[in-house]
Amino acid sequence: MGLPVFKNDSPSWVSPEDYLRLERDAEHKHEYYDGEIRAMAGAGYMHNLICMNLGGEIRNMLRGKGCSVVGSDQRLQILSGSAFTYPDITVVCGKPEVNEEKKPDTLLNPTLLIEVLSPSTGQHDRSNKFMLYRQVESLKQYLMIDSGSIHAELYTRDVLERWIFTETRDLTAVLDLSSIGCAVPLAEVYAGVSF
Hints:
Helix content is 23%, strand content 30%. The chain is an alpha+beta fold. It has one domain (43-189): Alpha-Beta Complex (tt1808, chain A), CATH 3.90.1570.10. The chain is globular, with a radius of gyration of 17 Å.
């Protein structure tokens, strides 16, 4: 994760428009945080296996229900362009909204966001990223899955706009992804994963 960091007050500060222009031509993905560009590190085998297991389970459960599942190449815009991220898995229910009709590559309205945590990204995903994600009006749930141990952390937005936290370390547990009408066995998420 965090490689070069450019601040607002430095000559290297980058506007959201310039970030998008540069990112569309870049060979590798970068996230954007209020003028700072951060190169993204590659993911390991267990991380990718968990992503595919979970994404596959959700996709199978959502067939014909008006929701779509996309992977980590889907860019998400937050706060009118003050941040752009690449969640590991994004679920959109209803019509996807994008920031530009002519370049429909940046999503605005996720229903569920999922991050698979690694030692290098876990703290950032739990704190700074979640602070940004909470500002996305369409977001109903945020799920974090640990790639180093059996551990799921789920935040659900209730009708009073409060974020309710639940977690489990029980492999027999079922993840209640109520925002998309799915119940995913944690054993399926970790299928084939060895620690």
